[in-house]
Specification:
Blueprint lengths: L17 H10 L1 H37 L6 H15 L9 H27 L14 H20 L4 H4 L6 H18 L1 H12 L15 H34 L6 H28 L3 H28 L6 H39 L7
Helix pairs in contact: 1-2, 2-3, 2-9, 2-10, 2-11, 3-10, 4-8, 4-9, 5-11, 5-12, 9-10, 11-12
Length: about 375
């Protein structure tokens, strides 16, 4: 793709409302706005969660090398300022070198973190590790609810509707390949990290796995650096749907020097407002695991599981055989119903733990 001016209209000719337009075509205006709502919740919640993770990793690198007085909130603000700078780039294509670096960092992070986790596990007293459920019965139930949201969040990294329709033709075939590859990588990397973390530390493992690691320090620092680089690109992927939504309504497509300058100023204003909001929430409530859960529950679960099942029932090719058609319909209704329940209970669990954390820690607590 040809270079695009940093002040030009963000997404050019591509339609960046794939899911929303599909929702509208199938279910009308309520479909459009419901998809828009879930999409914005997923994007915003994801960026709050990874903003906290980035600040935590930056602080960890700082603490390993210097013994100064900077807090987690300072690093969250540093990361926010850097993302605001990247946000001034016009579209996802202008971030291709950033995304390429982030891809290599993702592989580096997963490989390093899994290796160091196993190393830590082997050097611990295995008799001291408990795999039992902690707390009373009600606490265990809410932890299970919370975990459902976290699991749903892990699938969200393969759900990128804002850029799926920019892939080359045949779009359906290539999209299927892309999503299949994404899910395979998730299972082989992040799920293996989750399994390794639970094996190494049991029920005491931290939501952000690197916080549980202790040795060797240089390898842990390397994993934190990989995490920050990876997150810097991930943040941009998920803030772009929100930017695009406002750009549709606020930026002019007229090509002239005066219009381009106004577009630049308007874009700087709403990207700054977005970054201030995300940074403020992340700094005030730096509870990584809770935001991962609530984002997965009420953001990614509807978009990844509920809406596709309902969309297939409405627009998919049904088998001609009556019995087989009934089986397909019942299966998709069951998927939509089950994951609707998962979304509700996951949200309940996440909100409960956010409330508990707020009672335990003060706002802007240096975790």
């Amino acid at each position: 793709m040809a270079p695009i001016s940093a002040c030009s209209y963000s997404y050019g000719p591509e339609k960046h409302t794939t899911y929303r337009l599909l929702g509208q075509s199938i279910y009308g205006r309520w479909g459009y706005w419901s998809i828009t709502l879930f999409q914005q919740i997923a994007s915003l919640g994801n960026n709050i969660a990874i903003h906290i993770a980035a600040g935590s990793s930056l602080k960890a690198v700082y603490k390993y090398n210097w013994d100064g007085g900077l807090t987690l909130q300072d690093f969250i603000m540093f990361f926010g300022a850097f993302e605001l700078l990247l946000s001034q780039l016009p579209d996802i294509h202008s971030l291709r070198w950033v995304n390429a670096l982030c891809t290599f960092s993702t592989i580096g992070f997963a490989g390093t973190a899994i290796g160091v986790t196993i190393y830590n596990g082997k050097n611990m007293d295995r008799k001291s590790i408990s795999y039992g459920f902690q707390g009373n019965s009600s606490s265990r139930v809410f932890k299970a609810f919370n975990a459902l949201g976290v699991i749903a969040f892990s699938f969200g990294d393969a759900m990128l509707p804002e850029i799926q329709n920019t892939i080359r033709e045949p779009a359906k075939k290539n999209m299927y390949k892309g999503v299949s590859a994404a899910y395979s990588i998730i299972v082989l990397s992040y799920w293996q990290l989750a399994f390794s973390g639970y094996w190494a530390f049991g029920s005491q493992v931290q939501p952000f796995i690197l916080s549980s690691l202790t040795i060797p320090e240089w390898t842990i620092v390397m994993a934190h650096v990989f995490a920050v680089i990876q997150i810097s690109g991930c943040f941009q992927i998920y803030c772009r749907p929100t930017y695009a939504y406002f750009e549709e309504r606020m930026l002019s497509k007229v090509s002239s020097d005066g219009v381009r300058l106004r577009n630049c100023l308007r874009r700087l204003a709403f990207t700054s407002a977005y970054m201030v909001l995300v940074t403020l929430v992340a700094a005030a409530m730096p509870f990584f695991g809770d935001f991962v859960s609530i984002c997965g529950a009420i953001g990614f679960t509807p978009l990844d599981f509920v809406f596709p099942a309902l969309a297939f029932l409405k627009a998919g090719r049904m088998p001609k055989n009556t019995r087989l058609r009934l089986v397909v319909q019942v299966l998709h209704l069951a998927i939509a119903a089950w994951f609707s329940i998962v979304a509700v209970v996951g949200c309940i669990g996440a909100v409960r733990f956010i409330v508990i954390d707020i009672k335990t820690y003060k706002f802007f607590h240096d975790m």
